Amino acid sequence: MAESEEAEALAPPAERREQDLIGLSRKALAAEVAALGEPAFRARQLWQWLYGKGATDFEAMTSLSKTFRAKLAGGYRISRPEVCEALLSKDGTRKWLLQLAGGHRVETVHIPDGERGTLCVSSQVGCTLTCRFCHTGTQRLVRNLTAAEIVGQVLLAKDRFGEWPASRPGRAVTNLVFMGMGEPLYNFENVAEAIHILRDGEGLGISKRKITLSTAGVVPAMQRCGEELGVNLAVSLHAATDEIRDRIVPLNRKYPLAELIAACRDYPGLHNARRITFEYVMLQDVNDSDRDAEGLARLIEGIPAKTNLIPFNPWPGAPYRCSAPERVRRFARILNGAGLAAPVRTPRGQDIMAACGQLKSASERLRRSRRQAA
Predict the structure, then answer these.
(1) 17-54 per-position pLDDT tens digit
(2) Domain around 27
(3) With a threshold of 0.85, does the pTM exceed it?
């Protein structure tokens, strides 16, 4: 595929006539307000209505003049993703299958944990990385999400939990992780714009300390992520040798472990109070031996980090099985003995297909069968 054709394939569909206000930067929103002949302070008021109060109707923006509200209603819209399916697990995990422009679908998951509630957001439709244990990796990359579509996932979750204004206490959404569908560092510009909006103190006000970006190891963008965004970094490691990682995380062939670990050691702002999180999915007879644990301990020695050991969440047709519970515990004990933090993650939402990509794939199969029946 030619570069121009590939760029066109990754681009979202053309916008409707009305300009979507969600996803515009402060500067872009101010330009729209100025173009309508309104004073500059109106842009700040509008921003607060969109992101501080979660307004979806211009008529509700009572601090704006009726004339300004009429102008906005005449040429602008406030978008939210369409919920195709909403599931609630017995453990409290919620999963939404969302439909975006062009009929494409992505997933967003909310995981409650005591006083913390983590929202897992998607950054692409499908994924280009084809990690063999990941269900999203079985789905072709369709396109990048826009900043509006990324922010929209957060707004929708806050709508569903009724947590407006954004500053209200006892919020269900306290943390964000870019661990949903897609590789966020392959959609850096839109992800970065979305994070700037999400962090803005006059709107959603989510601290950078509460935002984690997960990457499979796009080494050239990692330094930029730390310098420009200052968010927490999670690295999908999953192996301690290039031989194993080449098989289960094909991106490793482009950016091998030596380059990836060097980028982790150099990640801006890294210290004991701000650690990298290494994600390590436990695959039976693949990466779960004592030797693997010992190699992992040597590989990441000296990096301020914790390693999340993740029991594999099987999906239909998966080529792997989850490591036995005692094997996972043994693996953790070896890492702990080397002085490393290695908590074992409790599987969540298994009864609602909460693993990334599962619900979307099930939905696509149903849509295909209905089309064939018709």
Answers:
(1) 689 999 999 999 999 999 999 999 999 999 999 999 99
(2) 13-77
(3) yes
Q: Is 85 considered catalytic here?
A: no
Give, rounded to a whole angstrom, the gap between the first and last alpha carbons of the chain: 33
Could you say which of 107, 149, 163, 279 is catalytic? Answer: 107
Banded model confidence at residue 132, pLDDT cuts 50, 70, 90: confident
Residues 6 or more apart whose CB falls under 8 angstroms from that of 291 comprise none
Question: Is residue 7 included in any domain, yes or no?
Answer: no
Give the range among 103-112, 251-260, 343-352 with minimum mean pLDDT: 343-352
Identify whether residues 61 and 202 lie together within a single domain: no
Longest dimension (CA), the chain: 70
CATH number for the domain harbouring residue 61: 1.10.150.530
Out of 77, 96, 114, a domain closes at: 77
Q: How many domains does the chain have?
A: 2
In the set 120, 134, 322, 356, the catalytic residue is 356
Helix (H, G, I), strand (E, B) or coil at 62: coil
Active site residue 131: no
